Each structure stands twice: as structure tokens, then as C-alpha cells.
Amino acid sequence: MKKAYLDNASTTQLRPEVVQEMTKILSEDYGNPSSTHSFGRHAKSILELSRKSIAKQLNASAQEIIFTSCGTEANNWILRSAVKDLKVKRIITSKIEHHAVLYTVQSLQQEFDIQVDYVAVKPNGEIDITDLVNLLSQETKTLVSLMHVNNEIGTVLDLEKVGRICEQHYALFHSDTVQSIGKTEIDLQIIPVDFIVASAHKFHGPKGVGFAFIKKNSGLQPIFHGGEQEKGLRPGTESVHQIAGMAKALELSYANLKQERNDILGLKNYLVSQLVFEFPAFKINGSQDGFYTILNVILPFEEEKAVMILFHLDMKGIAVSRGSACQSGSVKGSHVLAEMLSNENLKKPSLRISFSHYNTKEDIDLLINGLKGM
Ligand code: PLP
Q1: Per-residue pLDDT tens digits for 191-232
Q2: Ligand 1 contact, 323 CB (< 6 A)
Q3: What is the 3 state secondary structure string of the chain?
Q4: Which of 194, 195, 347, 370 is least enclosed, having the fewest CB within 10 Å?
Q5: Active site includes 70?
Q6: If you measure from the C-alpha of residue 98 to the centroid of ligand 1, how many angstroms do you get, rounded to a whole number?
Q7: Is the pTM of this model over 0.85?
């Protein structure tokens, strides 16, 4: 059966060059980077070259890149240490963040009794910047945590603008950039942000590895304790093959960005034109000009079909999602759509279709045919 993988916001296929790089390291370069003998030194050099390569892609300095096991860990670390060690008394975030931020903030609120304010979300899923400025008028040590690209609806935050606003109000700025790293240019010499995070499996790298950008002299402290790895900020023997695979994946993503973005945008426009033709009453959830890799739509089907749609498409080999991956297969609705849609629209079937450069027009045709068979 011909299959179509259209769930790339959930995870992505590895690039062959990444598999090759990782396989070589797994079989040949097995030293522990903390060992002082030649095996260790060799592993250490792979690690540091990977760090340099990642820093270069983002115009950061290598010492600002700290490897973690995933995006979730990086978000947890930054938010927790900001409260515990940087004495942040208040977090401003939004109700449409990924649970890696949302639930972490809720847990910190309970544990440390900090103030948490949620910035208003506009009906198109964009963050209301005027509300953010109003919220920032309080004189409390504040951290703003707002994601760059929303993983469910693809709305984009203007990082530079929000960064400047935070600077003007002496607030720290953390952004969950898991969906945008490797998919759009990020120049950390221009964007005033204190902390961003990435996850390799979202940009055709391996699962179980990510990194945090921690601005120089931030004062952030570790949440794990143990060895001196990552300057003591993230103890634990580094997963050299994963880190090198991540660096390779990021390098290739940026080397091919212009072409791949163009191709993906073409596919997304093709899907929209097919939806307009076959299901003219469909609606886009989020902004009309959302991020090029994600399209979230309400389909004009009866409510009963909402429950069955993923199953029906899956039977035909088509992988899409109803929200974030942790929610696909769960009975819980999307917390992001719940913030934006009327009760009536919430009951209708919404689908998140997310693309990569591996997708083709054929994949879109399969999806459209699958939907026509509903
Ligand atoms: N943040 C966002 C916006 C995401 O989309 C995801 C993954 O779905 C995460 C964080 C979690 O990343 P990881 O899977 O590396 O823990």
C-alpha cells in the first residue's frame, strides 16, 4: 500500500547522511568524551565540532550551546532554573504553548508560588502583543516564555519584536523554538533572546537529543547533578552519535533551506487549492499565512466523523494528526484549538497536516482521496 507521512510536526524521517554519520560514530568512535586518552579525546573533538557547527548555523557562540536529551528537557531546565536560581517571580506565557512549557509553568507555580499570567491569544491564534506590553508594565522580575512557531496551528511569533519588548521591560525571554529551528533562519546576534531550545528529531535528526541556547552570563544553574559534562550545566555522559547526527541534520537543513522551503510551500499551496476545490466549506485554524510546514484545518464533516477521521485515514496509510503527537490517539481535545475556536467548531473534525521535503503531490492526492472517502 502506498503510504503518506504528513505528520512532520510530530517527528521527521532521518536524512540518509545523518544515519551514515551516526552509524560510523556508533561503530568506530565509541570513546567517552570525558576520558583523557586518545579514544576520549577523539570523541570530545566530535562533540565540540558538533557544538561549533550548531552555533555557527544560529550565529551564536559555541559555549552558548548546551546539549540535552530533548526539547522537553531543555524547556524544563530553563524554566525551573529561572525561577529557582535567577529568582524570577513571575512568568508570562500563553495557553497555546506546548505542554513541555505549559505543564512545567503550572508545576513551578504550585511549587514556588510564582505569579503566572497568560497573554491573550487572538482568534487567529496569534499572540496579542498589545496585551503582552500591558502585562509587562508590572515591576516584578519576569520571564516571558512564548513559542516561535506553534506546533499545532503554525502561527509565528515575531521573535525579534518580542525580544525587544522584553529588553525594554527588563524581562528575560525564553522561546520554545522546537518547530522552527532548522526550518527558518535564526540569527542570535540580531534576535534578543535569552534562551531557546531545539529537538533534533523535528529537523530530520535522531530522537532523544536536543539542545538549549543559553545566552552568555545568564546565571542558569543545572537541575541534574553529577559529572562536569556540559560545563556542569547538564551532567551525564554525552550521546556523541546523537549529537553528531543532530549537528549534521541541522547543517543539511540550513544548506538546503531555500530549496526545501520553496518545495514545501508549493505542496502546502497545492493542498489548500485541492481543499478549496473538494471541500469548499473548509476553514483554516490559525493565521492564513502560518508557517510553511503546518496546515491545520476544520473539515466540513458531521461531528460523528470527528472521532473516526484519524483511524479512517490511518487505515488508508495516511498519517496526519489532530493536534500535538501526545494527543493523537488520546480522547482529550486540543488545548490550542480550545483557546481559539467556538464550541461548535471545536466539535467538528480538525486535522493537522505537516510537511517535509520528503512529501510529494502524490501524498496530497492520497490524503484528498482519503478524505473524499469519509
Ligand atoms: N515543543 C514543541 C513546540 C514541540 O512541538 C515539541 C514536540 O512535539 C516539544 C516541545 C517536545 O520536544 P521533544 O520531543 O524533543 O521533547
Answers
A1: 999 999 999 999 999 999 999 999 999 999 999 999 999 999
A2: no
A3: CCCEECECCCCCCCCHHHHHHHHHHHHHCCCCCCCCCHHHHHHHHHHHHHHHHHHHHHCCCHHHEEEECCHHHHHHHHHHHHHHCCCCCEEEECCCCCHHHHHHHHHHHHHHCCEEEECCECCCCCECHHHHHHHCCCCCCEEEECCCECCCCCCECCHHHHHHHHHHCCCEEEEECCCCECCECCCCCCCCCCEEEEEHHHHCCCCCCEEEEECCCCCCCCCCCCCCHHHHCCCCCCCHHHHHHHHHHHHHHHHCHHHHHHHHHHHHHHHHHHHHHHCCCCEECCCCCCCCCEEEEECCCCHHHHHHHHHHHHHCCEECECCCHHHCCCCCCCHHHHHHCCHHHHHCCEEEEECCCCCCHHHHHHHHHHHHCC
A4: 347
A5: no
A6: 7
A7: yes
